[in-house]
Write a structure and sequence with these properties.
The structure holds 2 protein chains of 2 kinds. Chain A is an all-alpha fold. Helices cover 81% and strands 2% of the residues of chain A. Chain A has one domain (2-107): Orthogonal Bundle (Helix Hairpins). Chain A has helices at residues 2-25, 29-55, 59-89, 102-107; one strand at residues 99-100. Chain B is built from 5 helices and 3 strands, in the order αααβαββα. The longest helix of chain B has 30 residues, at 55-84. The two termini of chain B are 22 Å apart. The chains are: A mainly alpha, B mainly alpha.
């Protein structure tokens, strides 16, 4: 059981690392948030699952299970708020962007 | 009255999971906290209690959770691939997708699901249209990308929340 826990924790740390690399490499706010929400959320969830395997159904393990859905909702809602806030603040989409349907709504 | 009881039961279960000790004093404090919560917030959440008691919704919820987890894992490999690829194959933009859902809770859950799936983040909901930031726009056909972004989850969410 401990070994399975360690494997999950290692996978989680790896994905968190990918998320952070994406945060540096990708060109603009919107793309950076993509990597920040996806990789970092699932990486952290994977670490929490590793904690559940490591401790079993004790005090700590149950708390880790409860934390997973809370983390999901918090991360998605925060990403949504950041994207919308960045757009309203007037940050342009990056040079590589090909389409922007949201422009018309925001103008009115 | 029923919805106060539902909120009370949910918050008490949440308290037990958070503290996870079954001593008398802990349970008494939990009941008091759940009572206060249900009196203060009871009127905001949940219009009806009946959906909680329909078994087939739980069945669809479990299927939906499996599909959602699979999409999440796929999303991670997708983003990891784009980040680690030397040429960074991205073609980002914001697209408009039409929704077939009516209730607010269903729209919220769909927006959250879209945020967690490969390459997409929901930006805003206006009426029954959702604006999605997509990291790689593979097609210009409206029908096709609506199906690609929202179609996978829409039918399940309809069955669960409406």
């Amino acid at each position: 059981m401990e070994i399975i826990g360690f494997i999950f924790i290692c996978i989680g740390i790896l994905f968190n690392l990918f998320g952070c690399i994406g945060l540096i490499r990708l060109p603009d706010v919107y793309n950076r948030l993509q990597s920040a929400t996806k990789c970092v959320t699932l990486g952290t969830c994977s670490i929490l699952i590793g904690v559940v395997f490591y401790y079993g159904f004790t005090n700590g393990g149950i708390k880790a299970i409860v934390a997973i859905p809370i983390l999901f909702f918090a991360a998605t809602v925060a990403a949504h708020a950041l994207v919308k806030g960045a757009y309203i603040f007037g940050i342009k989409l990056g040079d590589k962007s090909v389409k922007d349907d949201y422009k018309d709504v925001h103008k009115s | 009255m029923m919805k106060y009881i539902a909120i009370f039961i949910l918050s008490f279960i949440f308290w037990i999971l958070l503290t996870f000790s079954f001593s008398i004093s802990n349970i008494v404090v939990g009941i008091a906290a759940a009572l206060v919560t249900s009196f203060v917030f009871g009127k905001y959440f949940l219009k009806h209690v009946r959906p909680f008691l329909q078994i087939q919704r739980y069945y669809w919820l479990i299927i939906y959770l499996f599909i959602f987890t699979w999409e999440c894992i796929k999303a991670n490999f997708d983003v990891a691939y784009r980040v680690l690829h030397p040429a960074m194959p991205i073609k980002p933009g914001i697209v408009k997708v039409k929704l077939g859902l009516k209730t607010n809770i269903a729209k919220t859950i769909l927006a959250n699901s879209i945020t967690m799936t490969p390459g997409t983040i929901s930006v805003d909901i206006v009426g029954d249209e959702i604006y999605v930031h997509w990291i790689y726009i593979s097609t210009d056909n409206v029908e096709e990308y609506s199906q690609k972004i929202a179609g996978r989850f829409e039918k399940y969410i309809k069955k669960i929340f409406e």
